[in-house]
């Protein structure tokens, strides 16, 4: 009973539909929600008996508008330990910086997926492990849309980029697998930008953020009166993306019934809206992304083998950051450059001690988590370069272990020349990395790759075969 009383949430919002949604999501995590629709009432509520029992606040930026950050600061002044989450339509890094400096614990960009909202609420009351504070923020810096923006030289990563660059030139369906935060969405956008469909329709559906009841309608469309509440005809994503690209993110969350309908659409090239007596042909390229290995889900009966076969004729796997730890240095410098270009921030360097600290962490949230941690550190840093002291949560997790103080900085600005034992790597391994790097850099244009490497195209393909880079051929 005590735990239930402690899990009290105040939602400051004047949108009834959103209030119902957030309250329902919070209820799944055991929260009871107080809803207030203006900031004057919110301030007054803090001083009440119920207000003293609050465990968190969610503030919709639209309620106080330009005064949102002032309100966050006032809340923190009155209740310093109370976590505040800001909910906003804005993707402005400037607002993220101001909100965090005012004291916001997290920054959620609408529409927020249920999983993201629930994770943010969990983090407000989870005190057992300090790395919970390192969960990725939702601030969105302008996304780059080309393969050149995907930094890294680790062979599995360069293999994935080379394969994606080649696949981008075609029209077949693609499956991208990898843990959350490995860069699947960025890779999808880079593939679309480099594809023949770059100037055609593009839509991404985050399956985890859509209710099961409305997902079929969003995908396939519906006729007027097809179900209770279907007051008008609606075109589905397949119809809207005819001639273009449809991205199904977290396809591992798709129900078996919808999987069956998707198999039918992909096999026939024809989609039939709910309640319709007809179907129509569509030309849609599907790029599916999954956080989980779909082959494992097929073996347990949670994913259709037929759908996996249709999607995985081109399959790309993005490795987790812990398997490409030598990329941490180059990724860090790339992100710090990007962060330094944002309004309200400035370019920062980073010390060797800080790089060693970053290199010693396992990064369960992968590249996205690294970017978020650097963003947070840059917001509060007062020096010209980030030091180990700018990452207090990491220091608490890792401690002052010997590998952090004296270990090598796990980074690479280009191709890795040395093995972990300090000796030079074999020439064929270095050559393979150079070729992978070139294929990714020139987006799979093999004639250009061969020209830039100073070899003939036939020689390039022979080297691909000799070095075992079959998936880039």
TrEMBL record:
Keywords assigned by UniProt, alphabetized: Activator, ATP-binding, Cytoplasm, DNA-binding, Nitrogen fixation, Nucleotide-binding, Phosphoprotein, Repressor, Transcription, Transcription regulation, Two-component regulatory system
SMART domains listed in its UniProt record: AAA (SM00382), REC (SM00448)
Pfam families for this protein: AAA_lid_14, HTH_8, Response_reg, Sigma54_activat
A single Gene Ontology CC term: cytoplasm
Modified residues (4-aspartylphosphate): 60
CDD domains per record: AAA, REC
Keyword Transcription regulation: yes
Physiological role: Member of the two-component regulatory system NtrB/NtrC, which controls expression of the nitrogen-regulated (ntr) genes in response to nitrogen limitation. Phosphorylated NtrC binds directly to DNA and stimulates the formation of open promoter-sigma54-RNA polymerase complexes.
GO terms of molecular function: ATP binding; sequence-specific DNA binding
A biological process term (GO) from this entry: phosphorelay signal transduction system
Response regulatory domain segment(s): 8-125
Domain of life: Bacteria
PROSITE patterns in the record: RESPONSE_REGULATORY, SIGMA54_INTERACT_1, SIGMA54_INTERACT_3, SIGMA54_INTERACT_4
Protein name per the record: DNA-binding transcriptional regulator NtrC
PANTHER family reported for this sequence: DNA-BINDING TRANSCRIPTIONAL REGULATOR NTRC, TRANSCRIPTIONAL REGULATORY PROTEIN
Compartments where found: Cytoplasm
Main location as per UniProt: cytoplasm
Organism ancestry: Bacteria, Pseudomonadati, Pseudomonadota, Alphaproteobacteria, Sphingomonadales
Residue ranges annotated for the Sigma-54 factor interaction domain, each copy included: 150-379
């Amino acid at each position: 009973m005590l735990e239930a009383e402690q899990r009290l949430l105040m939602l400051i919002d004047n949108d009834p539909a959103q209030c119902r949604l957030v309250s329902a999501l919070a209820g799944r995590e055991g929260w009871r929600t107080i809803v207030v629709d203006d900031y004057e009432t919110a301030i007054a509520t803090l001083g009440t008996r119920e207000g003293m029992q609050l465990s968190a606040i969610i503030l919709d930026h639209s309620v106080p508008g330009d005064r949102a950050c002032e309100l966050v600061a006032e809340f923190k002044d009155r209740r310093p330990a109370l976590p505040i989450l800001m909910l906003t339509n804005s993707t402005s890094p400037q607002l993220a910086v101001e909100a965090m400096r005012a004291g916001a614990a997290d920054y959620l960009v609408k529409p927020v997926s249920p999983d993201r909202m629930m994770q943010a609420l969990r983090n407000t009351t989870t005190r057992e492990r300090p790395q919970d504070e390192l969960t990725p923020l939702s601030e969105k810096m302008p996304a780059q849309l080309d393969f050149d923006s995907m930094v890294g030289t680790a062979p599995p990563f360069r293999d994935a980029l080379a394969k994606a660059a080649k696949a981008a030139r075609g029209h077949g369906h693609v499956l991208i697998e990898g843990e959350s935060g490995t860069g699947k969405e960025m890779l999808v956008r880079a593939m679309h930008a480099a594809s023949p469909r770059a100037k055609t329709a593009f839509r991404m559906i985050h399956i985890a953020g859509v209710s099961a009841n409305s997902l079929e309608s969003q995908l396939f469309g519906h006729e007027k009166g097809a179900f209770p509440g279907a007051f008008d005809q609606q075109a589905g994503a397949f119809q809207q993306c005819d001639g273009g690209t449809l991205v199904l993110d977290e396809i591992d969350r798709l129900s078996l019934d919808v999987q069956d309908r998707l198999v039918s659409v992909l096999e026939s090239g024809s989609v039939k809206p709910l309640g319709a007596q007809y179907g129509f042909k569509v030309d849609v390229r599907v790029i599916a992304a999954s956080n989980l290995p779909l082959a494992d889900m097929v073996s347990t009966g949670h994913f259709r083998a037929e759908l996996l076969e249709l999607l995985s004729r081109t399959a790309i796997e993005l490795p987790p950051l812990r398997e490409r730890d030598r990329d941490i240095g180059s990724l860090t410098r790339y992100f710090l450059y990007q962060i330094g270009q944002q309004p309200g921030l400035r370019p920062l360097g980073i010390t060797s001690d800080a790089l060693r600290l970053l290199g010693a962490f396992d990064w369960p949230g992968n590249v996205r988590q690294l970017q978020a941690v650097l963003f947070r550190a840059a917001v509060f840093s007062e020096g010209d370069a980030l030091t180990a002291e700018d990452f207090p949560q990491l220091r608490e997790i890792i401690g002052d272990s010997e590998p952090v103080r004296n270990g090598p900085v796990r980074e690479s600005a280009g191709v890795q020349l040395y093995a972990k034992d300090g000796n030079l790597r074999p020439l064929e391994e270095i050559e393979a990395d150079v070729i992978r790097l070139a294929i990714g850099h020139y987006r799979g244009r093999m004639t250009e790759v061969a020209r830039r490497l100073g070899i003939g195209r036939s020689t390039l393909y022979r080297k691909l075969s000799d070095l075992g880079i079959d998936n880039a051929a």
